[in-house]
């Protein structure tokens, strides 16, 4: 993987996160309207998009580590904006760890047609997954656009 190829990855990752957020929102709207098949399509697409994000995210950071010696990019903002960034980043990271098991459990319960149990966990899964997807875009914007590295 060349350095030039790596420079596009954060934007691709942000795009995948944004797409996932849109699909999650559309899926929620569809189920509220009773459009079960559309809901299922949106949620499976959101899961596929998030899975692709995870693969790309890991590939980017592994590649960056191999090429530059550091897997991470330093945030250049200072003062209150740095505190805000770190708060968003910390909440994003901590909640991101819960998305995979929550989403798998939610999907499994729908697959098994355990819809009461599916709805109970989906009430937690959706807002957490949506928060992680949206804050992923916010972290990208703050790190690469608002305060880009030199």
Rg over CA atoms, rounded to whole Å, is 17 Å
* Apparent shape: elongated
Please tally the β strands and state the result. Answer: 0
> Into which percent range does the helicity of residues fall?
over 70%
Overall number of domains: 1
Main beta sheet = none
Q: Roughly what is the average pLDDT, rounded to an integer?
A: 95
Percentage of residues in DSSP E strands: under 5%
Structural class: mainly alpha
Spans of at least 5 consecutive residues whose pLDDT stays below 50 are: none
Distance between the termini: 21 Å
Count the helices. How many?
A: 4
Q: Provide the succession of SSEs.
A: HHHH
List the helices and strands and how they pair.
Elements: H1 3-32, H2 36-68, H3 80-111, H4 115-146
Task: Describe the model.
Helices cover 85% and strands 0% of the residues. It is mostly helical. The chain has one domain. It is elongated, with a radius of gyration of 17 Å. The mean pLDDT is 95.
Overview features:
mainly alpha; 150 residues; elongated
């Amino acid at each position: 993987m060349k350095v030039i190829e790596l420079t596009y990855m954060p934007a691709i990752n942000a795009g995948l996160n944004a797409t996932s957020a849109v699909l999650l929102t559309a899926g929620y709207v569809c189920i509220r309207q009773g459009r079960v098949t559309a809901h299922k399509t949106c949620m499976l697409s959101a899961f596929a998009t998030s899975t692709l994000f995870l693969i790309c995210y890991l590939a980017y950071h592994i590649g960056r580590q191999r090429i530059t010696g550091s897997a991470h990019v330093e945030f250049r903002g200072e003062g209150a904006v740095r505190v805000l960034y770190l708060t968003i980043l910390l909440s994003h990271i901590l909640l991101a760890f819960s998305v995979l098991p929550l989403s798998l459990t939610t999907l499994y319960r729908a697959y098994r047609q355990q819809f009461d149990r599916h709805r109970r966990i989906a009430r937690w899964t959706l807002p957490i997954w949506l928060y992680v997807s949206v804050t992923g875009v916010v972290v990208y914007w703050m790190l690469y656009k608002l305060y880009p590295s030199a």
